[in-house]
Amino acid sequence: MLTSNKTPIKHVLTFALLCTLSFPSVWAQFFSMDYKESAYREQHSLNRPYADSGHWDGFGAAAITPEYIRLTPDLKSQQGGIWNNKRVDMRGWGVHINFKIHGQGSINGDGIAFWYSKERMMPGPVFGSKDYFSGLGVFIDTFGNHVSPSTASRSESHRNHEHPYISIIVNNGSQKYDHDHDGGHQNLGGCSVKVRNKNSTQILVRYDISMLTVLRDVDGKGLWDICAQVDGIELPTGYYFGLSAATGDLSDNHDIFYVQTYEANNNEMGVHRIHGSRDGIIPSARRDRSPQDEGGAWSVIRIILVLGAVGVIAACGYGLVAITATKPKGT
Question: Under a CB-based contact definition with an 8 Å cutoff, are residues 228 and 189 in contact?
C-alpha cells in the first residue's frame, strides 16, 4: 500500500529552524573572515619573534618576552604602549589583535586601547596615551568609572553596561576624553566583553568606506560575533596604528600576542583612490543616528532578519516540492 512520506517536511522544517537560529553567527563569521582574502600588510603587523619587528616602537612599561609583549605588568600606576612607525596609506583596513588581560583579584583596571591616530608614542591619561588625540580609539575598559554617583544624569544606555566594555571614540583633537563617565556621550557604540583571565581574546577592528565594525572572539577560539558597527565615520589616511594600556590604583597584566593587518578587499576602493585623496580629512563621526543596541548595529540586525526570512522561505519551498514528489499518484 502506498503512503505519503512525511519525513522530508519534518527534516526541512528542522533545517529551517536551525538555519534561522544560526544566521547571526554565520554572518559574523563571514564578516570577520572575509578580510583575510585581502592583502596582508606586513609593515603594519606584529608577530613573533618580536625582536625582529623593526616597524614597531615601545614606550613606558612595555616589555618584550619570547611569547608576548607586556604593555603593563600587574602593578599600580603603570603606562606602556607600542606604536607602528609606518604611516597607513590604506583607505580601508582590518586589524586583528590577539591579547590577554589577567591578574589577581576580582576588581582590576584599567584596560587596553587600540589607536589609529595622528600622534604616536605620546604617553598620557587615556589608557596610557595622550588626551585630545586626533583619530580613532577603540578602548577595552576593564573598570567602570560610570558607577559613581556623579553619573546619575547619564542615559540608561551608558549607565547599565557591564565592564569590561569595548567603546568606540572618534576625536579631532579638540575634545578631552570623558574618563569619569567612560566616554559618556562620546561613545559611538560598543559591547561588554568578559575578557579577564582568558587564555587569549581576539578583536577585529575593520574600517571600510566610512563604516567601522568591531568584532569579538572572547575565548580566542575563532567564534566571532559582532560587537558594534558604526556608519558615518570619516578617517584620513596617513595616521598610525598603536596599542597602549594603563593601570591606576587597580592593575592587571596587559599582554599582546600578535597584530595582523590587512587592506580591505573592496572593489569600490579603487574608485575612491582615483577620485581624491583622504590625507586632509579631519576625523569625524556622524552623531545623528539612533542609539545602537549593545552587540551590534541595527543595520546588521536587519540584514540578518532578511537573510533568515529568505532561508525559511527557501526551505518551505523545498518542503512543498518534496511533499509533491512523494505524494502517490491518484490521491
Answer: yes
The residues, any chain, with a CB within 8 Å of residue 220's CB and separated by 6 or more, are 98, 198, 199, 200, 201, 202
pTM of the model: 0.76
Return the closest-CA partner of residue 295 out of 231, 230, 229, 227. 227
Per residue in 95-107, pLDDT (tens digit) is 999 999 999 877 8
Rounded to an integer, what distance in angstroms lies between the CA atom of residue 167 and that of residue 322? 49
Other CB atoms within 10 A of residue 100 CB: 21
Domain 38-295 indexed as CATH 3.40.190.10: no
CB 94 within 8 A of CB 35: yes
3-class secondary structure per residue, 113-171: EEEEECCCCCEEEECCECCCCEEEEEEEECCCHHHCHHHCCCCHHHHCCCCCEEEEEEE
Instruction: Indicate the domain borders of the chain.
Output: 1-36+297-331, 38-295
CA distance 124 to 115: 13
Give the whole-angstrom CA distance, residue 252 versus residue 250: 7
The span from the CA of 185 to the CA of 159, in Å, is 11
At residue 291, the 3 state secondary structure works out as coil
C-alpha cell at 70: 607586556
**What digits encode the pLDDT tens for the residues 178-219?**
978 888 889 999 999 999 999 999 999 999 989 999 999 999
